[in-house]
Amino acid sequence: MxxxxxxxxxxxPYCREALKWIDELYLENPAYKELELEKIDEEKNCDIAERxxxxxxxxxxxxxxxxHEGVATKDAVRNVFDEALK
Length: 86
Known about the structure:
Shape: globular
Largest sheet: 4 strands, mixed
Order of helices and strands: EHEHEEH
Strand content: 15-25%
Structural class: alpha+beta
Helix content: 25-40%
Distance between the termini: 6 Å
Number of helices: 3
């Protein structure tokens, strides 16, 4: 299992939607709850965010690899979670 980093902004509607997808996926597949998901607000943690190469939020990294950037669908979040489970 690999760690997931999610970069987001509190004010971002797409980030809030991605968080909603995460909650739904947790209910659908209990294995996803075992994943380590670090949520990093880029405004509150700009020192961390500056070390990563992305332009849009939400952005997901699995390990050190960017797996999704920008508007997320439920399937996109599921793909990130499935990649982290490998």
